[in-house]
Design goal:
This is Tripartite tricarboxylate transporter substrate binding protein. Keywords: Signal. InterPro entries: BUG (IPR005064), Bug_dom1 (IPR042100). By secondary structure, the protein is an alpha/beta fold. The chain has two domains: 179 residues, D-Maltodextrin-Binding Protein, domain 2 (3-Layer(aba) Sandwich), CATH 3.40.190.150; 100 residues, Periplasmic binding protein-like II (D-Maltodextrin-Binding Protein, domain 2, 3-Layer(aba) Sandwich), CATH 3.40.190. Strands 1, 2, 3, 4, 5, 6, 7, 8, 9 and 10 form a ten-stranded mixed sheet that branches. The two termini are 21 Å apart. The N terminus is likely disordered.
């Protein structure tokens, strides 16, 4: 296997005195205007909701508004590229997800070099995806899905918020380990995907827990499996079996959220953003949302995010290769 190296560059932790005069001045006054977090998905999905919750809390700590800018499309590439080409001043960030780690495997000709274009800020958290169906779906269990897929190869469909996202690759891993053929239907964001799931245009979705939490609570969707190695700690999902224990041994997949800035952002600015992000995810309001959705909050250093994503990239590159998956 040709390994995919995503040695993400940690921010340079340099003192203000070592910066150029202009950069030092900018870093010392940061932030003096609103900060923009690009969400590379449509409004209404899990990433969008997490970013908005974080943005409110970060804005309170930074003393500036944090604006959410939704830029869906291209399997997160459009929004991510916008940040890669933004000024490295800390005022533009991207809420990266699972796709950030796997896109180099899916599409070798990205408009940016993932290992050079970004400076990690913080791993926000990790969570299982949830295999969900409509409340009136005939599929009551994971085994029901497997039986239907084997009886009707390629006719059982699953939605995702876009090619290369956690929902997509979770489905591809399911196909591989359960030895079934499912029909992948990609959307430009979790919101449109869930709308069509509710409307009956698709059969199921390996959705992020944050995207479907309210719908599960309201009874509009039904969870039949979680993608993590252990059952979710969320009260709403605690009784839902893992996909592995439901009959697909070895199955494990998880979503994650991480903040990145453009490469070259001054170390002191990265440090200020990291501190604000840490404070945001440990706030009572964010914790309540995270706990309800099974999100394991992971406030750490920029290096922690870099190490985690390197591991994810290497692990999923084999799934991409074996499944002959690409964004082209």
């Amino acid at each position: 296997m040709r390994s995919v190296s995503l040695a993400l560059i940690a921010a340079a932790w340099v003192p203000l005195t070592s910066l150029a005069p202009g950069a030092a001045q900018a870093a010392s006054t940061f932030p003096d205007k609103p900060v923009r977090i690009v969400v590379p998905f449509s409004p209404g999905g899990g990433t969008d909701l997490i970013a908005r919750a974080m943005g409110v809390a970060m804005g309170q700590d930074l003393g500036q508004a944090v604006v959410i800018d939704n830029r869906p499309g291209g399997g997160t590439i459009i929004g991510t590229d916008n940040v890669a080409k933004s000024a490295p001043d800390g005022y533009t960030l991207v809420m990266a997800t699972f796709a950030h780690a796997v896109n180099p495997s899916l599409q070798p000709k990205l408009p940016y070099a993932t290992d050079k274009a970004f400076a990690p800020v913080m791993l926000v958290g990790r969570s299982p995806n949830v295999l969900v169906v409509r409340k009136d779906s005939p599929y009551k269990t994971v085994q029901d899905v497997i039986a239907a897929a084997k009886a009707k190869p390629g006719q059982v469909s699953f939605a995702s918020q876009g090619p290369g996202t956690s929902a997509h690759l979770a489905g591809e891993l399911f196909k591989r380990l359960a030895h079934v053929d499912l029909n992948h239907i990609p959307y430009k964001g979790a919101g449109p995907a869930i709308t069509d799931l509710l409307g009956g245009q698709v059969d199921l979705m390996f959705a992020t827990a944050s995207a479907v939490g309210n719908l599960l609570e309201g009874g509009k969707l039904r969870a039949i499996g979680v993608t993590s190695a252990q059952r979710s700690a969320s009260p709403d999902l605690a009784s839902v079996p893992t996909i592995a224990e439901a009959g697909v041994p070895g199955y494990v997949a998880e979503s994650w959220y991480g903040l990145y800035a453009p490469a070259g952002t001054p170390g002191p600015v990265i440090a200020r953003l990291n501190a604000a992000a840490r404070k945001a995810v440990t706030s009572e309001a964010f914790r309540k949302r995270a706990d309800a959705e099974g999100l394991i909050v992971s406030p750490g250093t920029p290096d922690d995010l870099a190490r985690y994503v390197r591991g994810e990239a290497l692990r999923w590159s084999q799934v991409v290769k074996d499944g002959h998956i690409s964004l082209n």
